[in-house]
Specification:
The protein is α+β, with helices and mostly antiparallel strands and 406 residues long. The protein folds into three domains: 2-141; 168-304, Alpha-Beta Plaits, CATH 3.30.70; 310-397, PucR C-terminal helix-turn-helix domain (Arc Repressor Mutant, subunit A). Helix content is 65%, strand content 7%. It has 17 helices and six strands. Strands 1, 2, 3, 4, 5 and 6 form a six-stranded mixed β-sheet that branches. The radius of gyration is 36 Å and the shape is rod-shaped. The relative contact order is 0.06.
């Protein structure tokens, strides 16, 4: 700062003005430029002194002076000033200073004017470049900080064990009111060919377009695409948010094999975590059961969750009802597949045969063989229910491909 004061004093002496007069003049230039650009005047810092010094002495700014300009660029980014506004501020200040520079205006020497203009232009170019670099660096850091805070918030929200009061406060910048009911959907694809963040942007545009930008959150977590919407918005469309996500992923040509699971709607921060767990469990159940639907609703899989809650009872049921099928020629698997297809089509031998590419006679033979081995008939309601529950349990346990847990 001492060198700057000496330089400013020398410049004032050369112009025949006092330091106070120069400060008043440059302050007026700064205020006019700030009014032109609609930007805060403090973003100029010592920039006008650098220009005046270059016009009088031809001196270029040093590293410390340019570092101060870079700091002004960071300040502009922190204040949320648009980059165009900020650059316009610096250009307007340079134009106004040049127009009102006393020494240059009075000089009859064209070479002196040309040299001063060249020096000023050099300083403008360097200062604007450094200012923009500082601005962009601060924006990059700000984006990284915001993304980090966003990921931490989403992790805590979906985990469901964070401080609720703190979560409610942290949710406000994201436009979420955690006191209301929300519904969460998860999309997953093991062979997606595009980056998940790019797909998240496309899905977010579609979700915001359909449901509005309030109470909506689209993010990524691990290998999942997470979509949170208010429960009263899910009435849009026949299948709501799940169908919308599926349509957008198909439109984005993001690779096959996408599956969307939608949890039920619950109220409060813990309700969001519960909806997330339901959606995640629905994806796991769908994979284990070999279901083919691309959009799954957790409410449709409640019976599987009931079966899975008491594993010991489920093992006992499978062992008691289905283990005799292992005595059949070819093992239990063909007969189990027949039962699964039979129950999936609602209990019709003809439709079962069509789905399995078998003759109706082959299907009826297999059903009779199941009766002989297990003693259970599909035509008897109580026995049919036991068979159906046992078949579902076997699929959940991966039997007979894997042995039953002891």
């Amino acid at each position: 700062m001492e060198d700057e004061d000496i330089s400013a004093a020398a410049g004032s002496a050369q112009r025949g003005t006092t330091r106070a007069e120069d400060e008043a003049w440059l302050a007026a230039v700064a205020r006019a430029a700030a009014a032109d650009a609609g930007a805060p005047v403090e973003l100029l810092g010592q920039y006008l002194w650098l220009l005046a010094d270059a016009a009088i002495s031809g001196r270029r700014p040093g590293p410390d002076q340019l570092a101060m300009v870079s700091t002004c660029g960071r300040l502009a980014a922190q204040k949320g000033v648009a980059p165009g506004q900020a650059v316009n501020l610096y250009l307007s200040a340079a134009w106004r200073l040049w127009r009102e520079l006393p020494l240059v205006a009075r000089s009859p020497d064209s070479e002196a004017v040309r040299g001063a203009a060249d020096a000023v232009l050099h300083v403008v170019g360097e200062a604007v470049a450094v200012f923009v670099d500082g601005y962009q660096d601060e924006r990059r850091q700000s984006i990284r900080r915001e993304e980090s805070l966003r990921r931490e918030f989403i992790d805590d929200l979906l985990r469901g064990d964070a401080d609720v009061a703190a979560l409610v406060e942290r949710a406000e910048p994201f436009g979420l009111d955690l006191t209301g009911p929300h519904q969460l959907a998860l999309a997953h694809c093991a062979d997606a060919r595009r980056e998940l963040d790019l797909l998240a942007s496309a899905v977010e545009r579609a979700v915001v377009s359909r449901f509005g930008d309030r109470e909506v959150l689209v993010a990524t977590k691990e290998h999942f695409l997470v979509v949170l919407v208010p429960a009263d918005s899910t009435s849009h469309g026949s299948d709501g948010v799940g169908a919308l996500i599926g349509e957008e992923l198909a439109r984005a040509q993001s690779g096959g094999g996408w599956r969307v699971a939608v949890g039920r709607a619950y109220t409060g921060a813990y309700g969001i975590a519960r909806s997330y767990e339901e959606a995640r469990e629905a994806l796991q159940l769908t994979n284990r059961l070999g279901l083919t639907s691309s959009v799954i609703h957790a409410r449709d899989l409640l019976v599987y969750r009931v079966l899975g809650r008491d594993q010991a009872a489920m093992i006992d049921l499978v062992q008691a009802v289905l283990s005799p099928l292992t005595q059949a020629r070819g093992g239990a698997e063909p007969l189990l597949e027949t039962l699964h297809a039979y129950f999936a089509v609602g209990g019709g031998a003809t439709e079962t045969a069509r789905r399995m590419h078998l003759s109706v006679r082959a299907v009826t033979y297999r059903l009779e063989r199941i009766r002989q081995l297990t003693g259970y008939r599909v035509a008897v309601p109580e026995q049919r229910f036991a068979l159906h529950a046992a078949v579902l349990g076997a699929r959940l346990l991966g039997w007979p491909q894997e042995p039953l847990p002891s």
